[in-house]
Structures are given as C-alpha cells and as structure tokens.
Amino acid sequence: MTQGYHKISAENNLPGSGPLSAPDKSDSDKIVSGQTSPASFDTVELSFEQLKVVLESSPAGFGVVTDRVLGWANESFYEMLGYEVGSLGGKNVRILYPTQREYERVGKLLALGMEKYDVGMVETRLSRKDGTVFDCRIRASLLYPGDPEKGKVVVVTDISELKSLQIQLQQAQKMEAIGVLAGGISHDFNNILMGIQGHLSLMQIDMTAVEKMASHTRQIKKLVDTAAELTGRLLGFARGGKYQIAILDANQVVKMALGIFTPSLKNIIVHESFEEKLHLVDGDHSQLEQVCLNLLINASQAMMDTGDIFISTQNIFITEDHGYPFAVLPGRYIKLSIKDTGIGMDTKIQKKIFDPFFSTKGIGDKKGRGLGLSTVFGIVKNHGGFITVRSKKGKGSEFMVFLPASNEVDIKDLPEETSSLDQMLKGSETVLLVDDEQEILNVGKNFLEKLGYTPLIAQNGLEAVEMFKAHKDQISLVVLDLIMPVMDGKQAFAHIKAIKNDTKFIMTTGYTVDEKLEDILHQGYHGFIQKPFSLHEFSRVIRTILDKRNP
Question: How buried is residue 356: exposed, middle or buried, by Cβ count under 10 Å (0-12/13-18/19+)?
C-alpha cells in the first residue's frame, strides 16, 4: 500500500456514510508529498479528487474496514460481489464469507501479516449476493500506519480465471505423473489377477476340503481389497481438483506413494525416516499422495542416473516468532522432507520454481524438469500448509512440506469384519435395489436374501420410480446406483423423494463422491457404500440407515 492510501482520512466518514470525503486540511494538503518532477511517477502530487478517480476506476475492489465493519468501497468492490453501491456500508464483512471458520481464518492471517510485515495478504473465497462464491486475493494495510483503531484499506482481486488456469495446469501435470503411476499399478494389478486366478484354481481342486477352501477365499478377499484400493487412487487422480477431506496418517500416505514410485527406480537408493507417533492431518489422500509423488519424481529427475533420496516425517511446533518470511499461523504441524543428491538450483531458479509454466528443462531434456512443483504448491496451500526449499547448485535440493496437525488424535477404525452369517446384522424389511449391471443385481439380491430382507429389483432410475410407485407402502429402503442409463441415480432420488419424502436411501457407486452426492448425504438419514463392498459392509450400512430416525 502506498503512502497515498495511508493518508485517506476516515475520521469524519462513519461506516456506510456514503462517498469517501476529502481529508481535513490540517491532516494533509496533499495525498502524496514530495518534490514535483514530471519525470518521476513517485514524486507526482495527487489531489484527493484525483486519487478518488484512480480508486473508482480500478478493476480491483478497494474498501475501508474498521473493526471488520465496511465503510467506503469503490464500484468495482460492489460489482464483484453483486451488491448495489453503498448497500454494504456499516455492515460486518462476515456477510461476505461462506462460513464462520473462513471469516475467522482470514481475519487472523490478515492481522498477522499487518503486524509482522505491514501488509497482510490471503487467498479465500467470498460469497456474492446471489449465493455464488468466487476465488479472490485480499490485501490489507493500515489506513494510518501504527494506528489500527482508524481502520484498514483492503484490496480485493478476483482470481477465478487464475484458479481455472491452475486447475488446467494441474491436469496437464497429472498426465505426466500418471506415467509413473500407471507403471506401478499395472504391475500390481497383474500380480493381483494372478493371485486370484491361482486361488480359484486351488479351490477347484480343494472343493472337498472345507478349511483349505476357506483359506483360499480369505486370500481372494485380501486381493480384491487391494485392487479396490488401487482403483481408488486412479479415481483420485481423475477427480479434477475436487477435495475429499478425511483424517489421515501422513506416514501411510507417504509409504503408499513410495510403493508406486520405488518400482520405477534403478540406481537410486531411497532412505526412509518416519516419526512413529506423527500427528494426524485433515487432508485429501489422493491429493497429498500426488504431492509426495511429484516431489519424488522431481528428486529422481534431478539426478544423473544414480544418487540418493532421503525422505522423512517429523512433528514440529511453530511459534509466533517463527522467522518465516510470510504469515504462518502458530501451532502444531507435521513436516515432510524430501532431499536429493542431484544437480541443485541457484537462488534465481529457486525463486521461480513454484510459478505456473516455469520449467528448467529444454526440449527433450529429461533432467531437472521441476515436474509439478506449482501443483504441489497449490495443493499444500489449499490444505492450510506451506512449502520451503533449500538448494545449492551442484549440491542437491531439499523440499520441506508443512501441514497443520488435525485436532483429532486417533483414526476411528471400523469394526473388524466377520465371515459368519450368524454374526451379521439382519432384518426383514423390503429393499428396492437399483443398478444397471446385471451382475451387481445378482450379487445384491443374494446378499439381501441371505440377510433376511425381501428384495425388489430395478435396472435403471425410471424402472425404480415406477417400482416405487407400485410398492411405496412396502419399501423401507432404496439402494440406488448413481451412474445409470435412461435416468440416473440423482434424478431417481428426486422423483422418489417427491412421491414419499421420508424414504431412506443408500447411494452406491464405483466412482468418487461429488458435491451433489455430498448434499444428499448431509441430509442425515441417507447412507453411502463404495463399490466393491462385502456382505458384512452391506449388512452394517443397511441396518444403520434403517435404524435411524427420520429428522
């Protein structure tokens, strides 16, 4: 913020009182003082009216905020948010934030930045009058340096297009990373299929030996679980930037990334050092796995065929006097370090490596490409963390990722599965099962019958609606696939709800949960089960939903 903006007077300008008035003459005759010289912009003297024209014509949104209450703001500010000019004057800026948590987070970071560096800056999402949200960057500085009581000048910049470009860039970089991912996964899948085939062959021989047969089926179950986990990773890469936050053990995320990455190495040795009781984090598993993969790939490409990679995790506590050259909220963090013995970087390159579209590679060059570092930066920042780098030309590089620790201290495990039908949760209600895959219907029908339920079958959403109309008084639960021809699961859900509003649903899909499905699940008495699922999982979810009271 320049001196001119600091000099704007707000003493006679109550919040919401209308256009910005000129400062009192006793305060300052001129907004920017200095020696007048037509050759230097820094010394040009601006009258208050001239400065006001500059502010009003700016595409950025300017405003004056005191105690988080908005006073004056320019037209761009109001246009950006979809309000009539002046209509927000005197109102708390909480109205502009989608959640109380985000309102508080932005306030803390801006205050911290102004206290330590005179200027606070943060990226967030603001709500327009029509309820839509947009990505923006907010800069804030004191109206009068050293006197926070007299308010702050805030500058709001719409960065929606920049975010869109970043997502496109992430997708392009994912395609580069997918080569490493696909190599490891195809190898693992072949092993899984070989294992399944082998156990099936042995089962055909051992049909008369019940205990041997049970052993083979347990092994097949483990292999299927592993295959489902691998497809989940592929789906995570395909989500296009949508986050699914869960409580995670970062050590496990790193180890899974290493499991994909290590088979592609030849003469590079990976050294591991993991903190045993590492803090849990709130994060998206596939996105954080991508951070690890991109940093590992970057490290391997920085070395000339041979070398060492050192990867470690550590609990740390960041204090208020942390010394980082940017605003960081104090508290508990985990630190992930990936260090290589590669070509290293000079200071000039280090300043650019997280910029979109920056690369150190030439055409056809396979070394030192800096693969996906802007993607890594974006993912880490979106998780509330930050990343730093230490490097020296010819001496290798170390990337350090810092993520805030979760408030949770333990990951809740699901009850252990039982293979005994007698120990599974059962019922006698009528259940409508909807799926376009005949094999899924066959398995699901058998599952329901074994658990004591009466199954009704439909092969698409339209059939489901007609079936429900005919049996609405008997049907206690609808198990509904999301992706189907003729009418999909979400449309069928809406039609069935219109017929009988208190109908209970379990949604199922082989794809990932998206925002629309999350809205359905947030209604409280609907469940979700990811394909493939076991009889034990199915029995537990069905009973949980049926036993819930409607709100």
Answer: middle
